[in-house]
Design goal:
This protein has 456 residues and is of the alpha/beta class. It has helices at residues 13-29, 57-64, 83-91, 110-122, 147-158, 198-203, 205-222, 233-250, 258-278, 280-300, 304-308, 314-348, 358-385, 388-426, 430-455, and strands spanning 32-36, 47-51, 72-76, 94-97, 127-129, 166-174, 183-188, 192-193. It folds into two domains: 13-222, Glycerol-3-phosphate (1)-acyltransferase, CATH 3.40.1130; 314-437, no CATH class. Helix 4 crosses helix 5. The protein starts with 12 loop residues before the first helix and ends with a helix.
Length: 456
């Protein structure tokens, strides 16, 4: 081990307090969040988390907040360029890894970074490295870079006999990358024993690295959405929304949890890949229909769910409208008291060119802005009311009514969509009728493809 031991993983009350708040805030950022495979985490041994990387800093937060382990993260060095950012990231237990694009003269710094990782792992503290090196904007695994394997194999070399380094593949599936209040599925896969590759690495380092890289890529693809068909990528992704209910029924998957939906999607993607090899023209025709259907929905400003439910009955529309009207005072209470902290982060987003960073900026800004505004507003209310109890009740009510306002807004949008669908249906709007027909054709065509393969 190095003479100067790394201390970033040592206990920090500031970090622990920040993490506790971060876990709470992150869980509120997503509508639904499910974690699978926590039993696969190899406690008591050195290990490295290896998640797929598609949603910038939210990927690291997904790992950090889905288990109870203090983990050291390694991120691309370009985000450390400004001193204040470097200090903040260091306080969050994040260290840089340098890439060739950061400049050849910077690569020598990785020697110190790798040694720090070895020291941390040697103390049985896990680290997290994004094996793809940078984030992508598609649900597919890209080529894995060498950094994580060098850290793992060099640590294995440095450890005493009998102590084994593990790599834990992590699959992350965000229903939406950029929007607030969406779904997130986190899957921890079976750990990979790095010691199985150490002899090959000692004999031929590139060969040992490549063998371990192929193994990790294979394990990661099992626990994430991997759409390898670039030509028909949009169709694959859109069918996940259109066809998931049907696919679960065909596979006799009971329930609507995120993991159950994921299992159905994986099988659908596998079958589509097999069909594309045999009959690519059939899938290209299906792709044209899905593109046409999606374009038609956008033109009418409708969503697919309205076709799945065939809209709302007149009775339901009336009841929903009455409910919205009666609860509108609560909506106004939540909306007005959360307006500034909610909207301020949104004003920054147009300036962020990389869309994959949108959620990271929204969450990061809200993480700091909401407590500040809540504190200021509570103090003002306490001064006006001259009562600590009223101020406390106001503080407790702020997030509650804020979430109610959010739900009210969603319900209102759905009611408007249902009303619009009802009017178009009643007037026998040609565009709507064509879309309904196209929707049925897409489901029927996909049924035929899935049935043929499932029967085999």
């Amino acid at each position: 081990m190095a003479q100067h031991k790394e201390t970033i993983h040592h206990k920090s009350y500031f970090y622990n307090s920040l993490k506790a708040y971060g876990v709470f805030a992150f869980s509120r950022y997503y509508k639904r969040r499910q974690v699978i495979g926590l039993e696969n985490i190899p406690y008591g041994t050195p290990f490295i988390f290896a998640p797929n990387h598609q949603n910038a800093l939210m990927d690291a937060l997904a790992v950090l907040t889905s288990n109870n382990i203090n983990t050291i993260f390694f991120a691309r060095a370009d985000v450390f360029k400004q001193k204040w950012k470097a200090k903040v990231l260091q306080s969050f237990k994040i260290k840089p890894i340098y890439r060739i694009r950061d400049g050849a003269s910077e690569l020598h710094k990785n020697e110190g970074i790798f040694q720090a990782a070895i020291n941390v792992l040697g103390d049985d503290c896990p680290v997290c490295v994004m094996p793809e090196g940078n984030h992508g904007d598609k649900r597919q695994l890209r080529k894995l870079v060498k950094g994580i394997f060098r850290i793992a194999l060099r640590t294995q070399e440095a450890l005493p006999d009998g102590k084994k380094v593990k790599i834990v593949p992590v699959g992350l599936d965000f229903s939406e990358y950029t929007k607030f209040f969406q779904n997130l599925l986190v899957i921890y896969g079976q750990p990979i024993d790095v010691s199985e590759y150490i002899e090959a690495y000692k004999e031929d380092a590139p060969k040992g690295i490549n063998e371990l890289r192929e193994r990790l890529a294979s394990e990661m693809k099992k626990i994430m959405i991997h759409i390898q068909n670039d030509e028909l990528y949009d169709m694959y992704q859109y069918l996940r929304e259109l066809y998931n209910d049907n696919m679960r029924k065909k596979l006799a998957i009971v329930g609507k949890s995120l993991y159950e939906k994921f299992r159905a999607d994986k099988q659908m993607i596998r079958i589509l890949d097999e069909e594309f090899e045999k009959n690519p023209d059939l899938l290209r025709q299906l792709s044209e229909k899905t593109i046409q259907y999606k374009s038609g929905l956008e033109k009418l400003n409708l969503r697919n769910w309205i076709f799945e439910r065939s809209g709302f009955t007149t009775k339901k529309l009336i009841y929903k409208r009455m409910g919205l009207y009666l609860s509108s005072p609560l909506f106004l209470l939540g909306y007005l008291n959360n307006f500034l902290p909610y909207t301020l982060p949104l004003t920054v987003i147009p300036k962020v060119k990389d869309a994959q960073f949108h959620s990271s900026f929204k969450f990061g800004l809200a993480f700091f802005i909401f407590p500040v505004f809540y504190a200021i507003q509570t103090i003002i209310v306490g001064i006006i009311a001259k009562s600590g109890l009223i101020a406390l009740a106001y503080l407790v009510g702020l997030p509650i009514f804020g979430y109610f306002a959010l739900f009210w807004h969603i319900w209102h949008k759905r009611w408007k969509a249902g009303l619009k669908y009802r009017k178009l249906k009643k007037s026998r709007n040609k565009e709507l009728l064509d879309l309904e027909k196209l929707h049925k054709e897409i489901l029927d065509s996909t049924d035929e493809i899935m049935d043929a393969h499932i029967q085999k």
